[in-house]
Write a structure and sequence with these properties.
This protein is mainly β and 148 residues long. The chain has two helices and twelve strands; from the N terminus they run H-E-E-E-E-E-E-E-E-E-H-E-E-E.
Length: 148
């Protein structure tokens, strides 16, 4: 009986590490909040706080003079400046193979990004989408600004 439980637990552990992060597991976590920052999820607006999990499809909004910093599961760093709207449109990451995809939508404002394991493994898998352009993350650090 005990061997069956251990074998089942081992199979489950392998399955959990072999598949990409899902929306329910989250894409990352808020690490820095300065000023008025909100998180929109499933039609609700919540105050953004340090330690809050960020999920696929979440929208982060910063007020005047505000900023937010997010670390994704692949160690990508996202920093949105004042008056920004940032959407985590798609995020999938396999921690074993470092394969997956990130689509971040910057609707307005500024975004600084330091790419993580995903972009290092598959540069074509990381994109920042703005109202007028789609940017591929080929470098390790970059800055994007969208004006109205």
């Amino acid at each position: 009986m005990r061997m069956g439980f251990l074998a089942g637990a081992l199979v489950m552990a392998v399955q959990l590490t072999a598949f990409p992060a899902t929306a329910a597991e989250g894409a990352g976590q808020i690490k820095v909040v300065n000023g008025a920052v909100s998180l929109e999820r499933e039609g609700r607006t919540l105050p953004a706080a340090i330690g809050t999990r960020v999920l696929q499809s979440d929208t982060l909004r910063t007020g005047a003079g505000a900023s937010v910093g997010v670390t994704l599961l692949d160690n990508t760093l996202l920093s949105a400046g004042p008056n920004s709207v940032l959407v985590i449109e798609h995020f999938a990451f396999n921690s074993t193979t470092h394969q997956g995809r990130l689509d971040a939508g910057l609707r307005r404002g500024t975004l600084s990004m330091v790419s993580g394991k995903l972009a290092k493994q598959s540069p074509d898998a990381v994109r920042v989408i703005t109202p007028t352009a789609v940017l591929g993350a080929r470098g390790t650090e970059f800055h994007v600004q969208v004006t109205e």
